[in-house]
Design a protein that fits this description.
Blueprint: H1 7-13, H2 17-27, H3 38-51, H4 56-65, H5 67-70, H6 80-89, H7 93-108
Length: 109
Amino acid sequence: MNHTNTIFNQLLELLPRNRFEQFVGQHKADRYVKRMSCWNQLSIMLYAQAKGKTSLRDIETGLLVQESKMYHLGLKSVAKSTIAEANRDRPYQIYESLFMNCLKYAKIV
């Protein structure tokens, strides 16, 4: 069986996951999480941005349709209420720190 990485998977591999997990740990953002970790939230938001999704319902529907492909990324379909709660409750500083880390790396190269 041939194994190919999707472009989206290649995009996620560019992000420093270990640093991201450190940022999550600093804010204790995954402490009481049952279904959707911060990494999953980031992946879903990147998917939504790349696909041009305009609403939570659009994101939810897109994930349902692509569920067989998203499985390989560790993503499952998620209810729009779960996405909304994660966006509301998670500290934005995690993603800001990730951006600054990537920006610092981009300036070096």
